[in-house]
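User: Can you write out an input/output pair for a complex, sequences first and structure second?

Assistant: Here is one pair. Inputs:
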Amino acid sequence: MKTAEKEWSPKILAFLCNWCSYAGADLAGISRMQYPPNIRVVRVPCSGRVNPYFIIKALQRGWDGVLVSGCHPGDCHYISGNLVARRRFAVLKDLLEYVGIEPRRLNFSWVSAAEGEKFANVVKDVVEKVKALGSAKRLVKR
Amino acid sequence: MKWKVLEKSELPALVAKLTEEYEVFAPVKEKNIVSFERLSSENQAYLDFWNTKKPPKDVFFPQTETLFTYRIAEKDVEIVEIPAAKGKRVLFGVRPCDARSFVLLNKFFSSGEHKDVYYLEKRRNTTIFGLACTSPRSTCFCTSLGGSPFGKDGMDLLLQDINDKYLIETITEKGEELVEKFPSLKDAEKADVERAKKLSEDAETAVKSKVSVKDVSEKLDRMFEDPLWDQIYQKCLGCGICTFLCPTCCCFDILDEETVEGKRVKIWDSCQFSCFTLHGSGHNPRSSGKERMRQRIMHKFNYFVNDFSEIFCVGCGRCVQECPVNLDIREIIGAISARQAE
Amino acid sequence: MEDLENLIREIAKKLLSEKKVDLIIGYEQGTLPLHTTPCFVDKAEDVKKLVWNASCDANLSKYVVDRKEKVGVIAKGCDARLIAVCAIEKQFPRENVVIIGIPCLGVVDRKKIETKLGDREVLEAIVEDEQIKVKGEGFELVLQKNDFLCDSCLTCRHRNSPIYDVFVGKKVPEVKGANEFAEVSSLESKSAEERWKHFKEELSKCIRCYACRNVCPLCYCKMCFVDQTMPAWFGKTNDLSDTMIYHIVRAFHVAGRCVDCGACSRACPMDINLRELMKKTEKIMKERYSYEAGVSLKEVPPLGEFKMEDSQEFIK
Amino acid sequence: MNNPYIPNLAAIRKIIIENEAKDIKTFELVFKDPEAMKNFRYKCGQFAEISVFGAGECPIGLASSPMDEDCIQFTVKKVGVVTTALHNCEEGTVIGVRGPYGNGFPLERMEGRNVIIVGGGFAFTTLRSLTKFILHEANRDRFKDLTVIYGARNPGELVYKYDLEAWGKRDDINLNVTIDRAVPGWTGLVGFVPAVLKEVAPSSDNALAIVCGPPIMYKFTMPVINELGFRPEDVFLSFEMKMKCGIGKCGRCNIGNKFVCKDGPVFSYKEFQMMPKEY
């Protein structure tokens, strides 16, 4: 049992915007930066494309954590997609935490195409936090 | 027919003994809501209720029931059938109106070429231990629909509260089989049976709410296009309270569920939901609340009567009590029967 | 009360006979004690059916969406605010609706009375300004109305419709000093685990009858997300995960629009306190975006717009 | 007790794309269990519940003829969840089949009589089953003249072109294929089904008519059928409704007190006239 616990590592679903964060992740890769291999990336045109259902569905399917990353405010390829998304995520996060979802499972970041290092750090941080929480149980459909 | 007496203090012991031999489902009170639950060491039967919030239909017709599971391996599929529950069950504390619903549900689920085995198997393994109704509510109208507060339809045994003790009336062989497991039960005396009879008559007169269903079905034959439907549906919200809490409503949907393994499930559905009849093409033959309300009333008071010579309503009054906008089925029936025959 | 009832009838009669509206949506006596039921009056001579008392709990704004004719609606503070929200969201042309504002001292929560009475059934009830007289088999009680009001009404901020075309009677004083978020705050102070346990227990009672959704004037979607099949986002069974998601997403959908009319909690046959969830959305909106729904006909709900300086402490 | 909800497993042996839009395909199925294949006896006009595991079930009319013993066929238009999932299946995929269900066409009543088959659009599937059945050498003598009128929006939407071609060469069938509007290269009939029916004017003497198509076609075809002198009890229509169980239990496909799944899907025009207009 002990070893199994040691071996467990979280699965994180990451929604990365095509114009900034995805490019940032790419830069991290090209620059040979090391970060944990626990994320699976879904490339989206904009963080505004991330329907709250995506996040909830990920939790329901048993992903241990979710990361949504987009362009910095003001830098959105579609002018304001990330700003609309920001309010949406704020409310969703507050609401999910209120019903008892562990706050650290829901992660959001702004990572530009030039911020490869930030991306690597965000992933490291998210993986560490989720690892500390253990595997997801709440809202997971068995 | 046999009559036994049971001291009131002995009831918990009787129920406890039942749980040793049967899976017992009985009314359980939790946070003000009484509903039928499987008895375990963690809960206990609660008999001091008017009626349960949900009808007992879900013991045989659960809100969600897995029909079978399947495993998909590339292009191939393997179906894993769910073995029918073999365990003997007792459904304890069912009110006569709800017990009567099983008579109707049995007729329906066992009709036709293809029978609903999921309902029927569970029903067959179950002994229904009714509980007579000594103080009906103002919304009860069972006597208008062929039932009565001490009615025995659909039951194997009937427990009757005769003030200082209980009488147990065995109705069927199944009921007798159960009673035989309690050899210590004494036979009832004539006076006890007399008292039960008196209480039964009192309870019957206590059902004040009446609806006239005499020629409702015939009238409905000619009322499909009646302007009445344009009126009555207006305030209906289209929620599923009346149908989900109805002891006889049993429409369902079949879906594939996404879980670790594939599952095909049967779930409660309601004719009041707009998606109930929505075609894949987007066409909906019952596109507004009017058609949906008409379907509910027609199904209960006309279509079912044509097929089974019974009205598909037992007068339990749940839909009357729980409707958020006080849309009262008794008024609808009243309006139909008030229609002049042309 | 008598008074307001007559005033309502007069105004309804006037609006109908002057052809300002085709239909008045109000309340009439229900078939059970403590119940009224929505009523649709299209003839001036029928206005005598209209009643007004503290059991007029249905939210009539539900019946305004999708209506072609011109309607006059009897609107309590909460009803009027929801009409405003739906009007901002262009669910009907504002000019098609005459809001008949009415001062409201709160509506009765029948569940509270039932809890108080236990097994005793109310057979007759008279609802007055201060008191509710209930009678039943072998009992007669006088209840103080304020002890049996809906939770929403106890902390109501708009007992007088903030938006109206006609106002009936005199405005009543607003509730003072009530902490509308007391329940939410007390839940917030608990641990995530305790909150999870709480909501799990509460929502596991749900039977997916969708009364909470269908009674809600804001749930006017032609096809609800739970009914969608392509893709079928979430399951329709009473599986706990799916059921909780249904309620969470519904709360999310009414965030910034919900005015705490309490209709969902009242409608729930399983006595789920949905208000706990809905009220949280109100709190979020107030704290993050200083927004209160249904008090203006101009401001768009927060999730329909954004500001550069919006809070983003949760984003790295 | 026999469990009616468990489907038989069947593998897709062949997929035929039927139309230009590629949203109508015919699926040829072979049961995994040869015994089940043998036991699956059906009548023209019946349907089955098709399962695509993971997507669900939906009712589809049997398009093959009961005389085809080694496989069954379903022609499916891509519309909803299950049909879309089915369209995404490849040959070899195993799906489920429950049935056959419904009453089917009144073959006994057709024997010794002239048969007129009128179909529009993709609803032609069960009519194709019927036509194939009647044309089968073992059956052809049992029926008199066979007239088929089949219309589609344009040539690309005509299904079963291979059958139509073969039938066109026979002299024991009066085949009339029409398209709604003329297009270059089309040398056949042009016009809506009711108009063509009027022109062909099959005699109603000792004849039975089977009509199957979209509701709008019924609306305009029935007056012509009446004009031609068919008695309401000699005309049969096939209906479509939202169905789930297929066995008269789930409660949604009724028109009045008739369940389309078990009392139908085929109703005589006489029955139809008695039914409430809720379909």
